[in-house]
């Protein structure tokens, strides 16, 4: 049983005609995109905005009509995965390298639904390295400042080269032992010149977390800290 797929498809059930839908990035979000494509074949009428080039490509393959990110003022519902979810509904995202666009779309959404399998749940964030997107101008300075916050930072690489985001930036993966106060850490990191965005998605941004389990069940957690 594919628990990620179960969670993603459960979230897609919440999409209604004439909504603007935010499409996340990553393996779990891909399940949601494919399911939305199936619903469009069955008559669902929506428009969508993608959070990465990869998600845009998949959406076009399954005939989801897309809007450019610059054209939207708000999103009715966004569906995306997460690399880690703590007991209060805070997230680490950005394993797929799309954290900046993902956060822009999540922030613009009236309803942000996070879909994960049970392996992504944790009491306290920190097992998954925290991605931080930086401008490529002076990475050594950013590494030094991030290290001073108590992590072991490293520039992300892919196939032996520095990974470059869809925005032309670099990602530093920060290994913290535990992230007890995500909000304070998010604020501290953003004070570092050259930092564009962090992969910390605070629970004030999250509406629901849908968790898929290998036994075929899904559980929906409403996050009470979510903004109205």
Mind sketching the topology for me?
Layout (H helix, E strand, L loop, with lengths): L2 H10 L7 E4 L3 H15 L5 E4 L2 H9 L15 E4 L3 E2 L5 E2 L6 H10 L3 E6 L12 E5 L4 H9 L4 E4 L1 E2 L2 E2 L7 E6 L6 H9 L4 E4 L1 E2 L6 E5 L5 E5 L6
Helix pairs in contact: 1-2
Could you tell me how far the N terminus lies from the C terminus, measured between alpha carbons in angstroms? Answer: 35 Å
Shape: globular
The total tally of domains equals 2
CATH topology of the largest domain: Rossmann fold
CATH architecture of the largest domain: 3-Layer(aba) Sandwich
Runs with pLDDT <50, length 5+?
none
Note the run of SSEs as H and E: HEHEHEEEHEEHEEEEHEEEE
- Averaged pLDDT: 96
Query: How much helical structure, as a percent, in the residues?
Result: 25-40%
* CATH C-level category of the largest domain: Alpha Beta
Largest sheet: 6 strands, mixed
Helical segment tally? Answer: 6
Strand content: 25-35%
- Strand sequence of the main sheet, in spatial order? 2-1-3-6-14-15
Question: Based on helices, strands and strand pairing, what is the structural class?
Answer: alpha/beta
Account of the protein in words:
It is a single chain. The model has no long low-confidence stretch (mean pLDDT 96). The protein has a six-stranded mixed beta sheet with strand order 2-1-3-6-14-15, sandwiched between helices. The chain has a four-stranded antiparallel beta sheet with strand order 8-11-7-12, with helices on one face. Strands 4-5-13 form a three-stranded antiparallel beta sheet, covered by helices on one side. Strand 1, helix 2 (27-41) and strand 2 form a beta-alpha-beta unit. The protein contains six helices and 15 strands. The protein has helices spanning 3-12, 27-41, 53-61, 99-108, 139-147, 182-190, and strands spanning 20-23, 47-50, 77-80, 84-85, 91-92, 112-117, 130-134, 152-155, 157-158, 161-162, 170-175, 195-198, 200-201, 208-212, 218-222. It is globular and about 55 Å long. It folds into two domains: 3-121 and 202-222, Rossmann fold; 130-198, Alpha-Beta Plaits. It is 27% helix and 25% strand. It is of the alpha/beta class and 228 residues long.
């Amino acid at each position: 049983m594919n628990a990620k797929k179960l969670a993603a498809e459960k979230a897609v059930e919440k999409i209604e005609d004439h909504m603007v839908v935010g499409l996340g990035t990553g393996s779990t979000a891909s399940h949601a995109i494919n399911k939305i494509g199936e619903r469009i074949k069955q008559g669902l009428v929506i428009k969508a905005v993608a959070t990465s080039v990869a998600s845009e490509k998949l959406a076009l393959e399954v005939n989801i009509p897309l809007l450019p990110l610059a054209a939207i003022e708000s999103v009715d519902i966004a569906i995306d995965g997460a690399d880690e979810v703590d007991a209060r509904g805070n997230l680490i995202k950005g394993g797929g390298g799309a954290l900046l666009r993902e956060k822009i779309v999540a922030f613009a959404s009236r309803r942000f639904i996070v879909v994960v399998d049970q392996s992504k749940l944790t009491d306290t964030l920190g097992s998954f390295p925290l991605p931080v997107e930086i401008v490529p101008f002076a990475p050594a300075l950013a590494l030094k400042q991030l290290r001073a916050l108590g992590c072991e930072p490293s520039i992300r690489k892919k196939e032996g080269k520095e990974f470059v985001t869809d925005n032309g930036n670099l990602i530093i993966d920060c290994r913290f032992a535990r992230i007890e106060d995500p909000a304070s850490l998010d604020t501290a990191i953003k004070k570092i010149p050259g930092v564009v965005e962090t992969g910390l998605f605070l629970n004030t941004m999250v509406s629901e977390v849908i968790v898929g389990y290998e036994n075929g069940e899904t559980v929906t957690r409403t996050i009470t800290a979510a903004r109205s």
